[in-house]
């Protein structure tokens, strides 16, 4: 990227205060966030995490959450992982996800350690909105990785993640199995699930092809995955794939796009009465020149309908 493009990208961002001041009565129009992830707090409310940065993707100061009782109005932020509290210097703090697994809440977040390659780390806490501790790297240290998520199979958890296109050109989605006690990963379990070039919706011919934001879920008992990429017309889109053998580490078949309006890195969750939602961010990048900023987009999920 040339110096002029770098300058425009830097100046195009919107400076956010840090720490972000606490506010109540927020709507999605008030929250600038990438990679939104929602989990029920078990008390009638919801927690939303996401990537929040200062000027550009690398200068986030930690992981924060927002809280809601109705998915319409939110309060926060609340800090659950503070950069300054960690004993290693990290950058990024991308794509935070919170899962309840192994009798604890697990925060997965993408970090770049000083002197090392980017990867997904897992922190743990007894409460969904507490301070997360004990970070362990889940993705291979010799790969540049991001956007790890947890998925369960046969009572064991896997970390499904992306290997970055900047390293392998044709971005990959891979998975590695965690140990039974979830203290790390099992050697020899890392598998390639599919590549960005397997996309069947307006596939790009560019040398470098993106994989972003995998998320596994079940639809009518069938194991599926959301993931995102850029298409031949440079749009960021939300895609879906299906596990033909109903296994994380088996064969995956691409189903095409579910959202095509410059948005993605989504996940699916059910509310307290069983309504299923897709949440993602759109547009894909902020720019002060057009006054467009990444916002959460919440949609009632219908697997039969592609959302333009």
Structure description:
With 308 residues, the protein is mainly β. It has helices at residues 3-12, 165-168; strands spanning 23-26, 34-40, 46-51, 62-68, 74-82, 90-101, 104-113, 119-125, 133-137, 145-153, 156-163, 172-177, 191-195, 212-219, 222-230, 236-243, 252-259, 264-270, 276-282, 295-300. It has one domain (3-300): Tachylectin-2, Chain A (5 Propeller), CATH 2.115.10.
List strands and helices in order, with pairings.
Layout (H helix, E strand, L loop, with lengths): L2 H10 L10 E4 L7 E7 L5 E6 L10 E7 L5 E9 L7 E12 L2 E10 L5 E7 L7 E5 L7 E9 L2 E8 L1 H4 L3 E6 L13 E5 L16 E8 L2 E9 L5 E8 L8 E8 L4 E7 L5 E7 L12 E6 L8
Antiparallel strand pairs: 1-5, 2-3, 3-4, 4-5, 6-7, 7-8, 8-9, 10-11, 11-12, 12-13, 14-15, 15-16, 16-17, 18-19, 19-20
Number of β-strand runs: 20
- The number of domains is 1
On the 0 to 100 scale, the average pLDDT is: 91
**Secondary-structure arrangement, i.e. CATH architecture:** 5 Propeller
How widely separated are the two ends?
31 Å
CATH topology: Tachylectin-2, Chain A
**Separate helix tally:** 2
Q: How would the global form be characterised?
A: globular
Structure summarized in a few sentences:
With 308 residues, the protein is mainly beta.
Tag the structure with descriptive keywords.
globular, single chain, 4-stranded antiparallel beta sheet, Tachylectin-2, Chain A, 308 residues, mainly beta, 5-stranded antiparallel beta sheet
């Amino acid at each position: 990227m040339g110096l002029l493009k770098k300058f425009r990208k830097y100046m195009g961002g919107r400076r956010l205060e840090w720490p972000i001041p606490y506010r109540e009565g927020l709507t999605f129009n008030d929250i600038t966030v990438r990679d939104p992830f929602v989990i029920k707090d078990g008390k009638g409310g919801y927690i939303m995490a996401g990537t929040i940065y200062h000027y550009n993707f690398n200068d986030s100061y930690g992981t924060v959450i927002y809280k809601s009782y109705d998915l319409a109005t939110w309060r926060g932020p609340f800090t659950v992982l503070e950069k300054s509290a960690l004993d290693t210097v990290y950058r990024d703090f991308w794509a935070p996800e919170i899962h309840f697994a192994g009798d604890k809440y697990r925060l997965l977040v993408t970090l770049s350690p000083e002197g090392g390659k980017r990867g997904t780390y897992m922190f743990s806490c007894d409460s969904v909105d507490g301070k997360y501790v004990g970070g362990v790297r889940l993705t291979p240290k010799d790969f540049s990785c991001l956007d790890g998520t947890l998925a369960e199979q046969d009572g064991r958890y896997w970390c499904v993640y992306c290997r970055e296109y900047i390293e392998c050109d044709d971005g990959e989605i891979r998975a590695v199995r965690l140990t039974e006690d979830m203290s790390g990963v099992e050697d020899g379990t890392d598998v390639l699930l599919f590549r960005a070039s397997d996309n069947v919706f307006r596939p790009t011919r560019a040398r470098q092809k993106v994989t972003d934001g995998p998320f596994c879920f079940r639809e009518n008992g069938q194991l599926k995955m959301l993931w995102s990429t850029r298409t031949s017309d440079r749009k960021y889109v939300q895609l879906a794939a299906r596990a033909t053998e109903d296994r994380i580490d088996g064969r995956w078949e691409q189903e095409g796009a579910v959202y095509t309006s410059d948005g993605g890195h989504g996940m699916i969750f059910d509310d307290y009465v069983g309504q299923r939602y897709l949440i993602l961010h759109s547009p894909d990048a902020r720019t002060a020149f057009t006054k467009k900023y990444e916002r959460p987009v919440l949609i009632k999920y219908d697997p039969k309908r592609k959302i333009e």
